[in-house]
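Fill in residues.
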């Protein structure tokens, strides 16, 4: 998906919501498991539980979001079954919701030859995502293999929402430049805002001003709204771009696990709609 196509979807839907598909078998509502159990005789139903849950969440939330972000750890944890469920989820999105942006949240990053294979696993084959999250720590040659695909994106970790982000990301060089600022400045030599985004946690608040000073036109993927306590209004105040939006705000647990009852899909839709309506207000200020 191109930057122009993504912006078009944002304005048409009046939303920059990304729904995180972080599926934990222990948190899948019993209604899903009962549905699968009625239709399936197989002993190990892990892949079917995950796939069925994802499909129901996607169908419920698709009108209110522009992107989905399956976190690979939540699929790899279940081995072959989990990876099969990931593949089937991406295939479902491609077939039924082709205009939604798909982010493989994998946080890859290794020496060039290894990164090349990571990129191949995400951008080729049956389960082709539009973007992948990448760790910048190993530098340019660990990132560039992901940039060799037309209309595919690298989303580089810049300033994350977890408490431990301060351990390294805010450390300063002798000239006063913080590590996340160096990542932003240096990485823009590798790709333009047509192919690179940055992860910036919603809990960083006013730090978005510093981000926008160094990356004034890039899209930012913003986790941390909802369960982690980030403020959508604060993110928009400092990070929203006037015409291009420049934000994809992710909510995972606050949407997909909003209810454990039989109404889980309906409640997920309501939570997604609430965020979409708030986003529409911010887009039209």
């Amino acid at each position: 998906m191109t930057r122009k196509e993504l912006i078009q979807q944002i304005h048409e839907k009046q939303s920059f919501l990304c729904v995180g598909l972080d599926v934990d078998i222990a948190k899948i509502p019993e209604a899903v498991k009962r549905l699968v159990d009625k239709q399936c005789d197989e002993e190990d139903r892990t892949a079917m539980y995950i796939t069925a849950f994802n499909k129901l969440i996607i169908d419920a939330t698709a009108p209110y979001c522009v992107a989905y972000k399956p976190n690979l750890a939540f699929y790899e944890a279940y081995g072959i079954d989990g990876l099969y469920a990931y593949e089937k989820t991406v295939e479902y999105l491609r077939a039924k919701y082709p205009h939604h942006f798909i982010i493989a949240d994998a946080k890859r990053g290794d020496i060039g030859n290894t990164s090349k294979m990571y990129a191949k696993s995400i951008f080729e084959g049956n389960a082709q995502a539009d973007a992948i999250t990448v760790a910048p720590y190993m530098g340019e040659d660990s990132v560039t293999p992901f940039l060799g695909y037309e209309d595919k994106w690298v989303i580089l970790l810049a300033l994350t929402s977890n408490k431990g982000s301060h351990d390294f990301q805010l450390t300063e060089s002798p000239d006063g430049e913080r590590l996340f600022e160096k990542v932003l400045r240096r990485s823009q030599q590798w790709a333009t805002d047509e192919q690179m985004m940055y992860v910036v946690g919603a809990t960083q608040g006013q730090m978005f001003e510093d981000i926008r000073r160094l990356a004034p036109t890039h899209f930012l993927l913003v986790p941390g709204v909802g369960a982690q306590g980030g403020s959508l209004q604060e993110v928009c105040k400092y990070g929203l771009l006037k015409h291009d939006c420049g934000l994809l705000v992710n909510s995972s647990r606050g949407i997909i696990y909003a209810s454990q009852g039989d109404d889980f899909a309906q409640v997920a839709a309501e939570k997604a709609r609430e965020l979409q309506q708030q986003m529409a207000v911010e887009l039209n200020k």
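The longest strand covers residues 101-108.
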